[in-house]
Every structure is written in C-alpha cells, then in structure tokens.
C-alpha cells in the first residue's frame, strides 16, 4: 500500500498511527498539495491523506478521507482492534473521532485565514478566524468533559478515539502554541503525555 500525505497533516498522522498500531507495512509518499496539483490525479478533491492499493495509481484505485481510510485499515489485521464492530460503542468511538476532526477542521480554517499567502492583510477576517477558534475552544472543553478522569476516551482500552484526540492535540501544540489547552484542561494534558509514550505517536510527531 502507498499512503500519500505530508508530515504536518493531522489527518495523515491519524492514518499513520493506525497503520503502526495495526503493524501494517506501507510506503509513505510525501505530497505538498499547496505547491503541486499532482494529487488531483489520485484524489479529485486535492486532499491528503490518500491510500493507493498496490498496482492501482489512479482515482479508481484510491481511497481518500482519513475516516474512510482508518475504517478500512482496521479490518486488515486482527491486531489491536481500534473501532468496535457495531452498536453504541462503535458510535461513541466515531463521535470522538468526529469531535477531534472537527477541532482540526476549525483550527486549519483559522490558520489559513491568518497565514494563507494569496490573501492580503486587508482581505483577512479576524472575526472569521476568531469564530473558528471559538469552535476549537468549545471542542476542547467538550473533549475534556468527555474524558474526565477516565483512562481512555471510550471504553476501557486504547481505540481510534484516543488516536484522533491525540492527533488534534498534537497539531494544536504544533501550529497554535498560543492556545494553552494544557493549562485549561490538565486531564487532556495527562492523556496526551500518556499517548506520546507510544511508539506510533513518538514516530509521527509533526515537523515543519
């Protein structure tokens, strides 16, 4: 398998961590979607991550969107089941993932509004960026409340919920050091520190 992505994308990191936890071999192909349109040959939406099956380098052989990819990857190996098969437990894990992805979605929009080079300062909207960051803070509060003093986000073991949360928190540390979520939500800080000790997290820390 070939995973097309970047070292900074939290969505790509989520897939990489799932692949590592499932002990699956894959080739990581780095792609700068802002500097090249070549990704469009594989994903018409021009986004990463994108998983390409062996021998299928076309849109018809590609799988995109991190949620779709991790759903598929979790079925490839019985090692460390990350998504429950059915019922309320499954919905709970996927809701945690949606919350974490939503925080990242909002934070990325805020960052683009602040820093996208093809927009002048006069064209930037502070109100728009602040609105997105409001979603980030609300999401962090919900995340903290949901975790409470539990050992894991969902159920009694490590799951995709924890991976998604860790990727969101890690990306905020990387791109928004001015959001002091560790001080505001110490339980999230403890959880992140525990996750960071796993090899899958330590080996995928985002770098510029």
TrEMBL record:
Entry keyword set: Transferase
E.C. number: 2.5.1.18
Residues covered by the GST N-terminal domain: 1-81
Pfam family, one: GST_C_2
Keyword Secreted: no
Gene Ontology molecular functions: glutathione transferase activity
Location of the GST C-terminal domain: 86-208
The keyword Transferase is annotated on this UniProt entry: yes
CDD domains noted in UniProt: GST_C_6
Highest taxon, organism lineage: Bacteria
InterPro entries in alphabetical order: Glutathione-S-Trfase_C-like, Glutathione-S-Trfase_C_sf, Glutathione_S-Trfase, Glutathione_S-Trfase_N, Thioredoxin-like_sf
Gene3D superfamilies: 1.20.1050.10, Glutaredoxin
Protein name: Glutathione S-transferase
Organism: Roseateles asaccharophilus
Lineage of the species this protein comes from: Bacteria, Pseudomonadati, Pseudomonadota, Betaproteobacteria, Burkholderiales
